[in-house]
C-alpha cells in the first residue's frame, strides 16, 4: 500500500486570547494586567485519507475546521500530536512539500487585487517553477472549463465574487498539486456559480485523481462531491464514514411531504399511527416512514385526498446535519454505544 | 425636544471618544512604541546633537541661543508638535478606502462627527503624554518653565493650531475618495510643515530671506511662534490667530465640499 | 546553487514587474511619492546646511564631511525606499489579517517572499538627484580612486546591515500581531542612524554599536572613507552583519512557528 495522503493522530491545537472588560476602565486594567483564556480549537483528532479520496470536513462555525486545514497545510503548528501529509511534517514546510499541496480559502484572496489575474498567475508560475508549455496548457484548459478566458486580463478588483473564486481556483491548481485543501470554496456564491465550481472540482478530480479535503456549509457541495464525510464538533471528531451511512445516522426512515388545497382533518385514518408534522394551517404535512411503506402510502394519500403537490426529500443530509447541530449529544451517545459494543 | 436631541447626541460623542481610547490603547507595546518611542528618540537625538554642536561650551551663543535655551526650544517644539500635529487621520482615509463608510451612511451619527470625536479622544491622550514628558524633563532639571499665564496662552494657542491641523488632515483623509494612498500626502505635509515651521531647528538659524517669505505663510505660526510663547515671548500672536482662523475656516469649507462630492461619487459608482 | 539563484532571480523579476504595474496604475500617488522623497531630501540637507551657517564643526567634522555622511545615508534611504520599505508595512498588515497564509504556502524562502515582495519604482526617479549630491560631496571631501571603487560596495554593505536589523525587529510582529509599533520603531532607528556616531556618548553609543549596531550603518563606511585608520569600525560592521544574519535565520524560524494565522 502507498503512504496515505494524510495521517493525523491525536492532533491538538491550543489558542490563547485575552479577556478584556468593556469601557475605559476595562482597557486601563487590561493595559497592565491581562487575563489569558486558553482554548483547544482542535483536540484528539485522528484522520487518515488515501489517494483519490474526496473528504468533506463539516461542522458548525468555530468547530475547528479552518484550524485543521491550516495545520494540514503547515500554516500553523500543532500544539500536540502527530501529523503527516504526503509523508512529511507540514509545519517543517519543506519546499518540495509546498509544491505538492494547494489551499483555496473562500474568505481570503491570494490574487493581487490591483492587477489582472494573469499577472498573478505568471508570478505563481515562477514560484512553482512551472514550465512555459505546461503553464500555457493548464491555463487554456482550466479557463475554458471555467469559462473565464475573457476575464484573465481584467483587473481582479473589477471581477464579481464568483469570477474571482474561479481565478482563485486556477491560481491554486497551476502547479498540479497532489492534495488540495478547499476551505469553503463556494461561500457567498450564487447557485449557478456554486454549481460551476462544483462541476469543475469534480472534473478536475476525475482527471487527476488527486486527494481533496473540502469544507463547506452547503450540503449540495457535500452531496455532489464527497464520498466520505468527517464531522467535527467543538474540536473533536464526531463522525467519519460514508455519505450513505451518514444519512442513516438518525434511522433509515424516509421523509415525504404533501401540500393540500384545503385544511385537513388530522384525525383522518390515513394519518393514524404515522410520524407526522403539520403546519399551523393544516395544509402541509411531513411524514417520516420506513422506505418499504413509502410508495404504497403516497399512492393512497394522492388518490384519497386533494393533494396539490408532494415531494420526497432531496437532501437527507441537510436534515441530519441540522439535527446534529442542534443536538450534538446524539453523536456522543452514538460513539459511546459503539465503544461499549 | 431640541434639547433632548442634543443630549443624546452628546452621548454618542462621548461613547465614540471612549471607544477610540480603547482602540488606541488596545495593543500595549504598540502604544508605547508609537507614542513614547518618538519622544525618547527625539530627545535623544536632539540633546546629543546639540551637545556636540555646542561642544562643551554651553555658554556659546548661536543666533541668540545658548545651549540651555536651544534645548528648551526643542522641548517645546516637541510638545507643540505632539499636541498640535500629532493626529494623522489615518482611520479616516482607511474607512473610505476600505468601503467602511457605508455604515456611516446608515448610522444616525455622521462621519465627521465620528472622526472629530476620535480626534478629541486622541488629543486627550496626546495632552497626557505631553504633560508626562514635561514632568520627566523637569525632573532632570532641563526645563525652563514660563510664567503661568504664558503657559496657559501657549496651551490654548497650541490647541487652536491642533484644530487647524485636524481640518487639514481631514482634507488629506477625504482625498481617499480619489487617491489610493493618502499616507503619501500626509507624510509629505508633515515633512514640509516640520521643515518650514521651525520644528527641526529654530527659524532664527535660517537665512533671513527664507524667514521673510515664510512669515507670509501659515507655517511659522504652527510651531515657531507657539514655542516662542512657551519661551516667554509674545510675538505676532494676534496675526497668527488671524491667519490660523482664516485657514481653519477655509479648510472646513473645502472639507465639506469635498466630502459632498466624494460621497456622490461613492454612492453613484458603488466603488 | 546556480539554478536556485536563477529561480529566485526569475521570481524577483516578477515581483518588480507586478509592483510596477500596480504602482503605475495609481498615477497621482506615483507622482506624489516622487515629491515626497524630494522634500524629504531637501529638508534634511537644508537643516544641516543652516546649522553650518552658524558653526564650523560638529564633533570632528566640518560641513562637507557631515554632508557627505548625510548624502550617503540618504542614498541608503533611497535604496531602502525602493527595494524594501513597502514590504515592511505589508508584512504587518498581512500578519494582522492572516493574508500571510498564502505567502507561507509558497515554495520559496519566506524571508525572501515577505521582504523583497514590493518594489517601488517611483524612488528610481530621485536616485539621480541623491546620487548626484553624493558624488558632489564625495568630490568635496577628496575621495581617492580607491574610495570611489569601494563606494558602491560600501553602500550595499550598509543597506544589508540596515535591513537585516530591520528584519530582526520585524520578526517580533509574529508575537505582537499588530506591527504598527514595530514599524515606528524601525523608523526611529533610521533616524538615529542618520547622524554620525560621535554625537552619541557613553553607554548608549556602545549599545547602538555592539548590541543593536544601527550606528554602524553609516558611520562604519564613511569614517573609513574619510580616514583609512578607522577600518576597525568597518570590520566590526562586517562581523555584525554575519552574526545578525544568523540571528535573523534563527528568530525567523521560531517566529513562523509562532504564527497563529488570524481566522478567516
Task: Describe the protein in words.
The complex is a heterotrimer of chains A (341), B (271) and C (264). With 341 residues, chain A is α/β, with parallel strands linked by helices. Chain A folds into two domains: 242 residues, Rossmann fold (3-Layer(aba) Sandwich), CATH 3.40.50; 94 residues, Alpha-Beta Plaits, CATH 3.30.70. Chain A has twelve helices and 13 strands. Chain A has a six-stranded mixed beta sheet with strand order 5-6-7-3-8-9, sandwiched between helices. Chain A has a four-stranded antiparallel beta sheet with strand order 11-12-10-13, covered by helices on one side. A three-stranded antiparallel beta sheet of chain A has the order 2-1-4, with helices on one face. Chain B has one domain. Chain B is built from twelve helices and no strands. In chain B, helix 3 packs across helix 11, helix 4 packs parallel to helix 7 and helix 7 packs parallel to helix 12. The radius of gyration of chain B is 20 Å and the shape is globular. In chain C, helix 3 packs antiparallel against helix 11 and helix 7 packs parallel to helix 12. Chain C has one domain. With 264 residues, chain C is an all-alpha fold. Chain C is globular and about 55 Å long. The model of chain C has no long low-confidence stretch (mean pLDDT 93). The chains are: A alpha/beta (341), B mainly alpha (271), C mainly alpha (264). Chains B and C meet through helix 2 and helix 8 of B and helix 2, strand 1 and helix 9 of C.
Number of helical runs of chain C? 12
Which descriptor suits the 3D outline of chain A? Answer: globular
Separation, N- and C-terminal Cα atoms of chain A: 30 Å
Head-to-tail CA distance between termini of chain C: 38 Å
Number of domains of chain C: 1
Number of strands of chain C: 2
In the CATH hierarchy, the third-tier topology of the largest domain in chain A is known as Rossmann fold
Q: Could you estimate the helical fraction of the residues of chain A in percent? A: 25-40%
Question: Main β-sheet of chain C, in a few words?
Answer: 2 strands, antiparallel
Specify the structural class of chain A: alpha/beta
The radius of gyration over CA of chain C amounts to 19 Å
The CATH superfamily of the largest domain in chain A is known as P-loop containing nucleotide triphosphate hydrolases
Determine the strand fraction of chain C and express it as a percent band: under 5%
Largest sheet of chain A: 6 strands, mixed
C-alpha geometry of chain C? globular
How much of the sequence lies in strands of chain A comes to 25-35%
- Give the low-confidence spans of chain C: none
**If you compute it from the alpha carbons, what radius of gyration of chain A comes out, rounded to the nearest whole angstrom?**
24 Å
CATH 2nd-level architecture of the largest domain in chain A: 3-Layer(aba) Sandwich
Number of helices of chain A: 12
Amino acid at each position: 500500500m502507498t503512504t496515505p495522503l494524510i495521517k493525523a493522530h491525536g492532533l491538538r491545537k491550543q489558542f490563547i486570547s485575552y479577556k478584556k472588560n468593556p469601557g475605559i476602565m476595562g482597557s486601563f486594567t487590561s493595559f497592565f494586567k491581562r487575563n489569558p483564556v486558553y482554548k483547544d480549537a482542535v483536540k484528539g483528532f485522528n484522520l487518515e485519507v488515501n489517494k483519490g479520496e474526496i473528504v468533506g470536513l463539516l461542522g458548525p462555525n468555530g468547530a475547528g475546521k479552518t484550524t485543521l486545514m491550516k495545520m494540514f497545510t503547515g500554516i500553523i503548528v500543532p500544539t500536540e500530536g502527530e501529523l503527516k501529509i504526503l509523508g512529511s511534517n507540514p509545519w517543517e514546510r519543506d519546499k518540495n512539500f509546498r509544491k505538492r499541496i494547494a489551499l483555496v480559502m473562500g474568505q481570503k484572496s491570494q490574487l493581487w487585487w490591483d492587477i489582472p489575474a494573469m499577472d498573478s498567475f505568471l508570478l505563481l508560475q515562477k514560484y512553482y517553477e512551472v514550465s512555459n508549455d505546461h503553464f500555457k496548457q493548464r491555463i487554456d484548459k482550466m479557463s475554458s472549463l471555467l469559462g473565464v478566458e475573457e476575464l484573465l486580463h481584467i483587473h481582479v478588483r473589477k471581477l464579481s465574487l464568483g469570477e474571482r473564486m474561479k481565478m482563485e481556483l486556477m491560481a491554486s491548481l497551476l502547479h498540479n498539486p497532489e492534495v488540495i485543501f478547499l476551505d469553503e470554496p463556494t461561500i457567498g456564491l450564487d447557485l449557478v456559480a456554486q454549481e460551476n465550481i462544483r462541476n469543475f472540482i469534480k472534473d478536475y478530480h476525475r482527471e487527476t485523481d488527486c486527494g481533496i479535503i473540502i469544507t463547506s456549509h452547503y450540503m449540495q457541495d457535500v452531496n455532489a462531491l464527497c464520498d466520505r464525510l468527517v464531522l467535527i464538533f467543538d474540536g473533536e471528531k464526531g463522525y467519519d464514514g460514508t455519505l450513505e451511512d451518514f444519512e442513516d445516522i438518525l434511522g433509515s426512515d424516509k421523509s415525504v411531504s404533501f401540500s393540500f388545497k384545503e385544511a385537513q382533518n388530522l384525525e383522518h385514518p390515513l394519518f393514524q399511527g404515522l410520524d407526522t408534522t403539520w403546519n399551523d394551517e393544516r395544509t402541509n404535512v411531513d411524514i417520516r416512514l420506513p422506505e418499504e411503506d413509502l410508495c404504497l402510502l403516497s399512492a393512497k394519500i394522492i388518490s384519497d385526498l386533494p393533494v396539490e403537490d408532494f415531494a420526497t426529500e432531496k437532501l437527507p443530509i441537510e436534515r441530519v446535519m441540522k439535527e446534529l447541530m442542534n443536538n450534538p449529544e446524539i453523536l456522543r451517545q452514538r460513539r459511546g454505544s459503539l465503544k461499549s459494543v | 425636544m431640541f434639547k433632548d436631541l442634543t443630549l443624546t447626541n452628546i452621548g454618542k460623542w462621548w461613547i465614540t471618544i471612549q471607544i477610540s481610547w480603547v482602540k488606541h490603547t488596545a495593543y500595549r507595546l504598540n502604544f508605547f512604541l508609537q507614542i513614547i518611542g518618538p519622544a525618547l528618540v527625539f530627545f535623544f537625538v536632539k540633546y546629543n546633537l546639540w551637545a556636540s554642536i555646542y561642544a562643551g561650551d554651553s555658554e556659546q551663543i548661536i543666533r541668540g541661543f545658548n545651549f540651555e535655551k536651544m534645548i528648551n526650544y526643542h522641548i517645546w517644539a516637541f510638545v507643540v508638535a505632539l499636541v498640535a500635529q500629532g493626529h494623522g487621520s489615518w482611520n479616516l482615509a482607511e474607512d473610505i478606502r476600505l468601503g467602511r463608510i457605508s455604515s456611516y451612511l446608515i448610522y444616525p451619527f455622521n462621519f465627521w462627527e465620528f472622526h472629530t470625536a476620535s480626534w478629541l479622544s486622541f488629543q486627550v491622550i496626546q495632552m497626557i503624554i505631553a504633560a508626562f514628558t514635561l514632568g520627566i524633563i523637569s525632573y532632570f532639571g532641563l526645563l525652563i518653565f514660563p510664567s503661568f499665564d504664558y503657559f496657559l496662552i501657549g496651551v490654548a494657542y497650541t490647541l487652536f493650531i491642533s484644530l487647524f491641523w485636524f481640518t487639514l488632515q481631514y482634507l488629506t483623509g477625504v482625498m481617499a475618495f480619489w487617491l489610493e494612498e493618502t499616507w503619501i500626502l500626509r507624510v509629505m505635509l508633515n515633512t514640509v510643515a516640520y521643515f518650514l515651521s521651525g520644528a527641526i531647528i529654530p527659524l532664527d538659524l535660517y537665512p533671513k530671506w527664507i524667514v521673510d517669505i515664510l512669515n507670509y505663510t501659515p507655517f511659522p505660526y504652527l510651531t515657531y511662534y507657539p514655542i516662542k510663547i512657551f519661551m516667554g515671548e509674545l510675538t505676532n500672536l494676534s496675526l497668527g490667530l488671524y491667519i490660523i482662523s482664516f485657514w481653519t475656516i477655509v479648510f472646513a469649507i473645502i472639507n465639506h465640499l469635498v466630502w459632498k462630492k466624494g460621497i456622490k461619487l461613492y454612492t453613484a459608482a458603488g466603488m | 546553487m546556480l539554478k536556485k539563484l536563477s529561480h529566485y532571480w526569475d521570481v524577483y523579476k516578477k515581483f518588480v514587474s507586478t509592483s510596477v504595474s500596480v504602482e503605475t496604475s495609481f498615477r497621482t500617488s506615483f507622482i506624489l511619492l516622487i515629491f515626497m522623497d524630494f522634500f524629504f531630501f531637501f529638508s534634511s540637507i537644508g537643516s544641516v546646511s543652516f546649522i553650518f551657517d552658524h558653526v564650523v564643526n560638529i564633533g570632528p567634522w566640518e560641513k562637507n564631511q557631515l554632508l557627505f555622511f548625510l548624502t550617503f545615508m540618504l542614498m541608503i534611504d533611497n535604496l531602502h525606499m525602493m527595494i524594501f520599505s513597502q514590504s515592511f508595512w505589508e508584512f504587518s498588515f498581512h500578519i494582522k489579517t492572516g493574508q500571510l497564509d498564502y505567502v507561507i504556502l509558497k515554495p520559496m524562502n519566506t524571508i525572501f517572499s515577505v521582504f523583497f515582495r514590493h518594489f517601488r519604482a517611483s524612488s528610481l526617479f530621485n536616485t539621480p538627484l541623491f546620487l548626484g549630491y553624493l558624488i558632489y560631496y564625495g568630490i568635496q571631501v577628496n575621495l581617492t580612486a580607491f574610495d570611489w571603487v569601494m563606494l558602491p560596495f560600501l553602500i550595499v554593505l550598509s543597506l544589508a546591515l540596515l535591513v537585516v536589523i530591520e528584519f530582526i525587529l520585524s520578526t517580533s510582529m509574529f508575537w505582537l500581531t499588530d506591527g504598527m509599533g514595530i514599524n515606528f520603531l524601525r523608523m526611529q532607528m533610521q533616524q538615529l542612524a542618520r547622524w554620525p556616531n560621535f554625537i552619541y556618548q557613553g553607554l548608549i553609543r556602545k549599545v547602538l554599536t555592539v548590541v543593536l549596531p544601527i550606528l554602524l550603518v553609516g558611520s562604519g563606511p564613511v569614517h573609513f572613507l574619510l580616514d583609512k585608520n578607522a577600518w576597525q569600525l568597518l570590520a566590526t560592521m562586517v562581523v555584525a552583519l554575519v552574526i545578525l544574519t544568523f540571528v535573523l535565520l534563527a528568530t525567523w524560524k521560531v517566529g513562523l512557528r509562532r504564527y497563529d494565522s488570524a481566522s478567516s
